[in-house]
Amino acid sequence: MIRAWFPTLIYCEPLMGNGLDRLNADLAAECRSLRDFDRAGREWSRRNYPGGYTSYASLNELHHFSSTFTRLERRITRHVRSFARALDMDLRGCGIRMTDCWVNIMPPSSAHSLHLHPLSFISGTYYVAAHRRCPGLKFEDPRLDRFMAAPPRLAGARRANLSHVTYPARAGNLILFESWLRHEVPQNRVGAERISISFNYNWA
What we know:
Layout: E1 10-14, H1 20-37, H2 39-48, E2 53-54, H3 67-86, E3 96-106, E4 112-115, E5 122-129, E6 137-140, E7 164-167, E8 173-178, E9 183-185, E10 194-203
Antiparallel strand pairs: 1-8, 2-3, 3-10, 4-9, 5-8, 5-10, 6-7, 6-9
């Protein structure tokens, strides 16, 4: 008998059933205004996020300063609780909170290299604006550095056995994952900006 153990779970759902167009329009306008205002963020991005803009190193607690982002936080928190339940996490008597929240704007040619999110337990991305051919979020099998002498996978391998999986970037969708899971965003090759909001959660 063969059984699957130690699964890696990724959560992907629409943020909400109604009102997404209005929320995303408000968020997109605020994200672009933030980029115009955030001189320190633009300078940091020039050195560390070539071609794109992120408020990660300058304005990364937006849920504390903007009512639009506070509304988004409330919506996301409901999904984080659902995901934590699916992971069988024992949060009895504990609270969870969004610790970081920042904007990413990726115009044509920009990319985000492989990374993870330390000092948090659940992280994620919400898509505000994304052309249907914009790059998605690419995840790496966390065991990849331990495969050693393993042969390559068959061309028709089941998705659960692949070394990488990519979730499409779709406006209105929320993706959650455990913060240790490495991921990246390949180069944007379409002539439209890809706007997303990333965040981390902690518990206590």
